[in-house]
Amino acid sequence: MPELPEVETITRALRPHLEGARILGVTTHVPRLRTPLDLEHRPELVGHRILALRRRAKYLIAELDGPCCLVLHLGMTGSFRIVPPATPLTAWEHVVWQLDTGCEWRFNDPRRFGSAELHPLPVPGGEPACLAGLGPEPLGPAFSGAALHAACAGRRSAIKPLLMDPRIVVGVGNIYASEALFRAGIRPQTPAGRLSHTRCDRLAAAIVEVLREAIAFGGTTLVNFKTVDGSEGRFRRRLLVYGRGDEPCTRCATGRIRRAVLGGRSTWWCPHCQH
DNA sequence: ATATTCCCCTGGAAGC
DNA sequence: TGCTTCCAGGGGAATA
To answer: What positions of strand C are covered by protein, i.e. any atom < 7 Å from a CB?
Structure first.
């Protein structure tokens, strides 16, 4: 569920609680999430101060005043909260960081698709080697219609699953891929390599637009996305095609939104507005 | 190299 | 009412 706007919302909400805080201890309550949890008693972590909290793709990076950083991923159902230390543990609260601010930072993830790992950070302000294969940030300077066109060149795959490939562009998941294609008027099944420069320009602009709007609305809550204070994202009502199978199109009112599975993921589009 | 499939895991909705 | 089945989806590994 958390795509770029949701992770960005969470990063901004966590920042005032974490930046400058020192980690006094870490407790884990399951052996692993998507990857093994190996955080307790690590000298690279315990005792260090969090210098900065950043987002890269759908990852959160907590830079420490040492050689390492925390790399966190929310998977499908991950969430964080900041609570007083005596607060009873809830179900699925798998990681607890004790901070010198008098608060605890907790990671909750029912489905355990998330991850929390410690990685070397060779260059302060940089990013760890484990994220080196990621493509451009859609809201950064490296992303454009031209970059998208180049990344799609020669690809026969449908554009929609390709939009969710983090080597092409990061942060775009199932919801915003469908939404961006609708805004750009492009059918999700279109072979990526067939898209013209003009259409790639339009698509890149639509991706930027929908992500910016979603961030402004605090993200999209479908089932259980919540930001740090427990509030839900307000972008759900702005979704134009996602989850709207059989409904009349909000734009043309004549087409009916269709659903198909592309690359194993449900995809929605308006056959009248998208070509 | 690229494209597709599967798996990880649980809760909620739908179906019988 | 209560059981089973299906589906959601990020990312990485395995397979074609």
So the answer is: 7-12
Cβ contact A216 with chain C strand, < 7 A: no
CA(A112)–C1'(B8) in Å? 8
Per-residue pLDDT of chain A (275 residues; tens, 9 = 90+): 688 999 999 999 999 999 999 999 999 998 889 888 999 999 999 999 999 999 999 999 999 999 999 999 998 889 999 999 989 988 889 999 999 999 999 999 988 889 999 999 989 998 898 898 899 999 999 999 999 999 999 999 999 999 999 999 999 999 999 999 999 999 999 999 999 999 999 999 999 999 999 999 888 766 666 677 777 788 888 889 998 888 899 999 998 899 888 888 889 999 999 99
Cα separation, A232 vs A218, whole angstroms: 8
Those residues whose C-beta lies under 8 Å from the C-beta of residue A65, and which sit 6 or more positions away, are A48, A49, A51
Gap from A232 CA to C9 C1', Å = 19
Q: Judge if the beta carbon of A25 is closer than 7 A to nucleic acid strand C.
A: no
